[in-house]
Design goal:
Layout lengths: L1 H5 L4 H5 L2 H15 L1 H20 L5 H18 L8 H15 L15 H13 L1 H12 L8 H4 L7 H32 L15 H26 L3 H10 L1
Length: 246
């Protein structure tokens, strides 16, 4: 008996159980009450995310659950009409079973508690593969649709994808503004008159120009010196004249 309890049930076993059949009939009530369905999607997404983060949820089950979230949302909003009502009801019933703590293997049992849930999700993916494939093809025709489970789980919080997009947009905007500012400075620098070099402050002033100015100053000083010396010499003419008189 203990051996049988340790053997995980197959998807067919879970789908044929009295518990799942009960949830299948309950699913109709969820579909007729949008607020209740929204709460179910939110709870199921939270549990799936928590289990996925700690590694207790298989990758295939995580991917299937995300597709189910999107399928239910698109069907309930009227965006996607290619799925039968029975398929939507089965998807809702799987989510009810997934969040229920009491099922074939109660969730509080470590490790084993999630096996029946995963088996049922795998059963849904396999049994209704044709419907799932049709939905995926429809999604490919809508490239602008944000296919994130968080958005379809009716969360009011900003999803990581939208936050990253907003950050990228802000970064691009800041980069463009910086480029425009740099271009404006370049234009102002090109239009401004060229500054005249200052020999007193610029150690790199042309050597030839400095030499020329020095030569000019030297010439002026020489003329001034010669003029001064000439004025101080005695007049030769006046002396000779005086000699002739005598």
């Amino acid at each position: 008996m203990a051996k049988n309890q340790q053997t995980p049930p197959s998807g067919n076993d879970v789908a044929g159980s009295a518990i799942f059949k009960k949830f299948l009939s309950t699913a109709e009530g969820y579909i007729k009450q949008p607020t209740r369905l929204k709460s179910l999607l939110t709870d199921a997404y939270k549990k799936a995310s928590d289990k996925n983060d700690v590694g207790t949820l298989a990758h295939e089950a995580w991917e299937t659950l995300q597709t189910m979230f999107r399928l239910i949302k698109a069907s309930m909003s009227g965006e996607y009409t290619g799925v039968p009502g029975t398929t939507v009801a089965a998807a809702v019933a799987v989510l009810i079973y997934f969040i229920s703590p009491i099922d074939l293997i109660p969730d509080f049992i470590p490790v084993l508690g999630l096996l029946d849930d995963v088996a049922l999700v795998a059963w849904f993916s396999t049994t209704l593969k044709g419907e799932m494939d049709k939905f995926h093809e429809w999604e490919l025709t809508r490239p602008t649709e944000v296919a994130t489970a968080g958005a379809y789980a009716a969360s009011d919080k900003e999803t990581p994808a939208s936050a990253a997009s907003a950050a990228a947009t802000a970064t691009a905007s800041a980069s463009n503004q910086a480029k425009h500012a740099a271009d404006a400075l370049d234009e102002q620098a090109a239009m401004a008159p060229a500054a005249q070099p200052s020999h007193s402050n610029d150690p790199a002033a042309p050597t030839a120009q400095i030499a020329e100015e020095s030569a000019k100053h030297a010439g002026t000083d020489s003329i001034a010196a010669n003029t001064t010396d000439s004025s101080r010499e005695p007049s030769t003419t006046a002396t000779n004249t005086g000699g002739n008189v005598r």
